[in-house]
Amino acid sequence: MIHSLFLVNASGDIFLEKHWKSVVSRSVCDYFFEAQERATEPENVPPVIPTPHHYLISVLRHRIYFVAVIQSEVPPLFVIEFLHRVVDTFQDYFGVCTEAAIKDNVVVVYELLEEMLDNGFPLATESNILKELIKPPTILRTMVNTITGSTNVGEQLPTGQLSVVPWRRTGVKYTNNEAYFDVVEEIDAIIDKSGSTITAEIQGVIDACVKLTGMPDLTLSFMNPRLLDDVSFHPCVRFKRWEAERILSFIPPDGNFRLLSYHVSSQNLVAIPVYVKHNISFREGSSQGRFDLTLGPKQTMGKAVEAVLVSSQLPRGVLNANLNASQGTYTFDPVTKMLTWDVGKINPQKLPSLKGTMSLQAGASKPDENPTINIQFKTQQMAISGLKVNRLDMYGEKYKPFKGIKYMTKAGKFQVRT
Amino acid sequence: TTDNQNHPPIFELKAELNSDKKEKKKEAVKKVIASMTVGKDVSALFPDVVNCMQTDNLELKKLVYLYLMNYAKSQPDMAIMAVNTFVKDCEDPNPLIRALAVRTMGCIRVDKITEYLCEPLRKCLKDEDPYVRKTAAVCVAKLHDINAQLVEDQGFLDTLKDLISDSNPMVVANAVAALSEIAESHPNSNLLDLNPQTINKLLTALNECTEWGQIFILDCLANYTPRDDRESQSICERVTPRLSHANSAVVLSAVKVLMKFMEMLPKDLDYYGTLLKKLAPPLVTLLSAEPELQYVALRNINLIVQRRPEILKHEMKVFFVKYNDPIYVKLEKLDIMIRLASQANIAQVLAELKEYATEVDVDFVRKAVRAIGRCAIKVEQSAERCVSTLLDLIQTKVNYVVQEAIVVIKDIFRKYPNKYESVIATLCENLDSLDEPEARAAMIWIVGEYAERIDNADELLESFLEGFHDESTQVQLQLLTAIVKLFLKKPTETQELVQQVLSLATQDSDNPDLRDRGYIYWRLLSTDPVAAKEVVLAEKPLISEETDLIEPTLLEELICHIGTLASVYHKPPSAFVEGSRGVQHKRIPGNLGSGESVESPDNGSAAGVTEAPPAVIPSQGDLLGDLLNLDLTPPTTTGPPPISSGMQMGAMDLLGGGLDSLVGLRHNTERSFRSPSPPDYSPTEVGPGGHMGAGFGAPPAVMPASFNAPVSVGLDDLFDLGGGVGMPMGAFNPPKTVWLPAMKAKGLEISGTFVRRAGVIQMEMNLTNKAMSVMTDFAIQFNRNSFGLASAGPLQILTPLSPNQSIEAALPLSTVGPVMKMEPLNNLQVAVKNNIDVFYFSCQYPISMLFVEDGKMERQVFLATWKDIPNDNESQFQIKDCHLNSDAASNKLQSSNIFTIAKRTVEGQDMLYQSMKLTNGIWVLAELRVQAGNPNYTTILKSKQRITSLIIIHTVSERPFCTNWNLICYIL
Known about the structure:
Chain A is 17% helix and 41% strand. By secondary structure, chain A is of the alpha+beta class. The longest helix of chain A has 19 residues, at 76-94. At the A-B interface, strand 2, strand 4, helix 2, helix 4 and strand 7 of A face helix 3, helix 5, helix 8, helix 10 and helix 13 of B.
């Protein structure tokens, strides 16, 4: 099981270590540092690194490497999932997961890590339970604690820990009972030079914020559940009911949680909300290159495309870019060769464009590679897959909750080749 | 100063810890913990912190516990002070405190504390509160790690087994997790004895426990072998819902169970098809997760598509590379794309690969170019398109792209001969830009292979010849072969060229491989050009479709280990020595198509040794027989250099085929063939008589200089032996057997044997490269073994091993390595590494290798010892069909360090009393009874130590292990 954990920052310093079995010397991280040095980019450090006596499994989140040390055969995904849970918990507790936040709360961090793993076995990883065991630090509580001498640590056995609904604590009370669901879809796509879609898929999630008194039992049904053939559920969802009736039936955890995530595969037809017209070219023997980019809305079901951000890594030979943006602002970093154009909203009547020239090193040969264009965007009130919630019902409690569903589509890894 | 605030000096903390104020105390402990967390040593505060332990404040208690776990090991005596509080806390009415106490005690790795832990732990395992029970279950695993014997003696393992039937799913999950961890160090303990009842309980718990518990349970289920296909199906049905879990580790563990159990289902079953369909979406979903998860998923998918390509055959697109994927994801995706490539999707794949070939990352681009070549080889219909894509890429003139393309085009030629040679002209244009050995070698191969179609082939090859000595071996070998091919195709214009290269290879080179190959060609050409043509220009076998498929038995094993480190590294779990102390090989259960019970490598090689036929017993005077049987290197040589195959070949040739060849050569001269004649080696001058002289009179002048020393000494020695009767004969050396078959080691074949020479045990190996690419960087290592055999030096293979080449290597062994009892005793597990991979095999050495030279016991001591040894330690067996008299037998045995101490004759029966001593100092005594006229001998073996009796019992009772003592039969 998981032996130890080291947190390493971008400059390669270990700023926290935790051992769940015997102490493993920090020097084991030298193998990690070697890999880090070899990697051209921080994200290229391989996630599993063998050393003579241990294996190092790491994830990179918020510019911090979480390096787990294992000694025996342990499923690597188990370790990686656990590390993600650690990151999520820190973020949940401290608002951000940064080196500073971790250092400021080092004792809570230590208490949390101790509670999350026992002898390398996961113990309590559900945010609900952890919060009952160790109260998150807030300015108010710190003040109250100082005055009254009370503690951060819960005195009671967390109620959910052993019940059939381990994700929910008992005795929840709210004055305003509300249940909100966000359907968020991300499009991953590769568009080729000519504008045709090579591959496109949708990663969707339904995130919930449920603040309901007591033990509510919810059902959520869809207009078109057939879209969901590849889903991953929160443990609260009754799988049998879904299999039989295509209805989500569940007792929700208290607070924020991800109800389900789904995947609409490349075999379905995926609508593409934006198109790009581009002409990025270099001529042999010339020290100038042409850059010409125009964006437009495509299949948006009448909704506006907003928060558009274009970025592209230009070839190494490009010294500078002299461009003109019809709207928004662009920047070019001559060191990293990264061109970013913050477009904002696309107005279908007046399409945004970015045109001009790129200057190359004098005498240098024409760059071989063609830059890829990365696009980010958002569209509100629409799930691009067409998924729609039919109705939400609550059983088991008498009161009438506020209910709300929001839809949003955004770009995931949306890439246009030139 | 901030640092000072957070981590104040020790003396300040000490004062605060001893403060009367509760609040101040707690803050101080927090500061101590904070210092500890960042790696500062605050162990000096141990007594002060322990004093804070007796408190009602749960947070303070937890903090003190945290501290204790960290430092108890370094302060064991102080830690005892905490025991009472722990014991008391285990009785606390609050289950949280009981659980916390038992949990913390288990983490304090101090023997004295462990003793006190047993009673509280026993209570907690039966606690009324499931939270306490589940914590206690994990505690058993902790305790086992510290003191396994204690856990067994106290019966905790049984209690743990009972917990599998606990009413609470979390307790079940933790019990399974703890048992699985303990079982890792007890491979044969049957701890997780799975039967239909327990399986049912696990499946029930699976639905209700936490995600982590589900992983443990699924991994445990994967070890079960269902009784029939109905049970298999019902387990699959109950596991499939896990494929929709949000936790990717749960999903992958479920995939493992399903992949394994579906093997048992009849393929025509509807459910089988349904299951296949259900497996695709969750695998695809894993690829939309974070890159680290993707990487692990991709490594596993790589296995899955090799085993069941149909699952993902329609999902090619999800493996298309995004330009900002991390490099480790890109490379894996590329690999899978090729595995999924088929006629249906090849156009898309090629378009993608061409796109990738223009990216920035050099490693990725290279792999993409290679991938195009692999597609051509895999999908015949696409070959033409692939070749034209490669030509396009060559036009880019990007140096590494061109080189990579040429390497793969060579492979395409080997797959589709006489089809794409029209592109050779284009390739030749790029000759000058090639600076990597592999690309140069590939180009030279192409020129040589198609010499008849390239007008200026001789010029091209000649241009390489100029810097011959600066080239890498790979290129030199290729150039040698190519020029010989050219010569055989266009003999008239290229005689000079071939002489030049032959003399460069044989006279001016220090590389034995190159010299060998040079001499072989030379001989072939000078002996029989027609035969040479047949040999050198023989039709080559086509290369196989996919060269990098995982070998099927390993693949089967890896499928059973989906989701583990083994699956990430594509190596058997036994390769993870540290972690898996003797993991059993897992196999896919029952009725498989390939179910011919393929032997595991261990058994395979062991059988090889035992089944080897006994060596020919030389009758005296039969020189030839002796020669065949004996080694050519003198036994007196200490620490001999590795014998290159050339020496043996040369020597054997002189003795045998050489004669014919020389006679034949005279006729050949009429065929107007001018044989190349280096100054010191002119075969034409040596007649048959001269040849005999060369062999035994050893006039070195007619031998290639490099062969002189070892061969002539060797031959002298043989000569001696042939003449002298009763001379000490060479110790028994079993014949070489194949230890590592090429198909199990990506083309590397190793055969070998063990010899003992001048007190040094040597492992003599023949390494043969049966793969397509050059092998380099050889190294060897042994696992711990019964007699502490370890290599006394590195494996001396100084030159790369080219395809179809083989090399001999002798590795001196010492007996001072780490010891671990093996089963059978003389089993040796070996790991051999080369530039391609690491391979494992096991072999058995003859026990006689371990008999040391000073194994002759004093007569008196022998007598006393013989009487002392109880009959229990004695065993008797027969040696059949031995025709030596007792003196000859005694001599023969002595050469293997089995010494005759005394001999007496009773009623025509000679009784030899013998002693031998093993490298580890154990004496073995023997009585050998030889009845004149009876070819069957009887031997009685005795030893004081049980261990050797064990050998004897093994060797006698079980046929496969008869090797050791049958050796004595061999020697005789």
